[in-house]
Amino acid sequence: MRILVGITAGIAAYKIPLLIRLLVKQGHEVRVVMTPDAVDFVSPLVLSTLAKNPVVIEFWDKKTGEWNNHVACAEWADLLVVAPCTANALAKMAQGLCDNFLLATYLSMRKRTVVAPAMDLEMFQHPTVKRNLERLIEDGVEVIPPEYGELASGMVGEGRLPEPEQLAERINQLLGMRQKLTGLTALVTAGPTYEPIDAVRFIGNRSSGKMGYAVAQALANQGARVALLTGPTKLHLKHPLIEKVDIETALELYHATQNHWPKVDIGVFTAAVADYRPIEPKSHKVKKNEESFELNLVRTEDSLAWAGMHKQRHQYLVGFALETEDGSAYALDKLHKKNLDAVVLNVLGEKGVGFNSDTNKIRIFDKDGSDVAYPMERKEDLARRIVDHIILNK
Ligand code: CTP
């Protein structure tokens, strides 16, 4: 495919030579356009060598006296990738300004454009930047969201350009497939619940939320608008199509499910919900006066079962099961009892599988009787498989 890489004047431009090398290695044809100030951050010589094509910066090539045609440049490309995209470039693109070759090329693009904003934390959180990004999304521009991490200023937060490998992966996704869930909506539950015992203590579990966040991201990458109902996690996720709804207890999750489920097309319930909660949590901190302490527990509300009970014809519902033994029988039982369309069984008991790890091993059972086992993979890859299953069977 023909990829036009547009570089603007951000410090993260240092990652772009590696991105270009990767894309070329993967068989893409790459050309580069830069804003005039971007040359202070990365050398056009390095870029043109790696891209195996000349780099265009100005409308007018002073050496040859030739005019660079932005319309032809835009026509050539299957995808324009603006990375890093500074706040300034974002603002100009959102307003339709074209005081440099890159911006004129963007305005001439008839195929897709993707931007990868990268800037400091405060800048990325500024309402004008958010507004400009929203406007670009409305204009059909795709966004590769910045990551959370250390920034050039030394601050830690959101604003970091993803690594070249991840950028290349997203670019390939965008090129390889039309988004298949555009116009649809989804609900994903993720993470643990905390059930209060008193003012400071709770019953919780070790769920990291990684699987649910990865599923939300995979659904959004396919164009679905996602409500992510999440218990307390350390994860950060920013995607223009994902709305995060924080919950803490099983009851809050239940209420949020009742609010969102009737409005969506797809549900994926990955949350590790406490099965029991203290009947009467104390509002003060309990003192250790007695030798023993009794805690009376009561069953929590089952959000997934509620969703299954209120499922409409157009809705596709996926539950998770975590089992140590005779997994398939329990998983199938869940599928039928909770009126699911598919159940994902986490096969526990192996290293690298489960709650807090980055990898997992799953089996997907569908209500049509199919049963597919996947090898151990990163949760992001498994999330994509789950979403592919939904796309195929919905
Ligand atoms: N779930 C839920 N609300 C609950 C409990 C579970 O939404 N209160 C969802 C989970 O997100 C998961 C599925 O239901 O998708 C898990 O079902 P569950 O019967 O709780 O599984 P286990 O706890 O593994 O079952 P058991 O206690 O029978 O071993």
The fraction of residues in strands falls at 15-25%
CATH class of the largest domain: Alpha Beta
Q: Main β-sheet, in a few words? A: 8 strands, mixed
CATH level 4 superfamily of the largest domain: CoaB-like
Please count the helical segments. 13
Shape: elongated
Radius of gyration: 24 Å
Class of secondary structure makeup: alpha/beta
On the 0-100 scale, what is the average pLDDT?
92
User: How far do the termini sit from each other?
Assistant: 30 Å
Q: What strand line-up does the widest sheet have?
A: 13-12-9-14-17-18-20-21
Which architecture of the largest domain would the CATH scheme give at its second level?
A: 3-Layer(aba) Sandwich
Bound molecule kinds, no repeats: cytidine-5'-triphosphate
Measured as a percent range, the helix fraction is 25-40%
Number of domains: 2
User: Uncertain spans, ≥5 residues at pLDDT below 50?
Assistant: none
The count of DSSP E runs of length 2 or more, i.e. the number of strands, is 22
At CATH level 3, the topology of the largest domain is Rossmann fold
